[in-house]
Design a protein that fits this description.
The protein has 115 residues and is mainly β. It is built from one helix and five strands. The strands form two sheets. The chain has a three-stranded antiparallel sheet with strand order 3-4-5. It has a two-stranded antiparallel sheet with strand order 1-2.
Amino acid sequence: MNGFEIKDPLIPLEEIFSGGPPRDGIPSIDDPRFVAAEKADFLLPQHQVLGLELRGEKRAYPILILNWHEIVNDVVGGVPVTVSYSAFPGCFTTVICCSMTGAVNPSGPRSADRR
C-alpha cells in the first residue's frame, strides 16, 4: 500500500486511502543555493522568509520554497543544520536542529522520516 507493513488494522485495508504524497514524495533540499536579497526576483515584499543567524552567518529560507520541500539540510556558520517546516493547515511549525559538534548525518533527516 505505502511501503509500510500494516499488521492487525482496526480498519479494513481496502477502506484506507492515501491522503498525501507517497513515501519520499517531498524531497529535501540537501545542497541549498542562495542569492542576495536584491537578486531574489521570485520573492515579493509580502513573502515571508524563515531567518536564521548562527555564528555570524545569516540565511533566509523563503516560505514559498519550504512549502514544497519542507526540509533543508544546510551548513550555517560552519554548523550542520536541518530546517524543517510544516505548512499543514493551522500548524505552520518550524524546527531547526543543529549539530554543535560538527557531526553530519548523511542519511537524514529526510521527509519520509517524519511520517
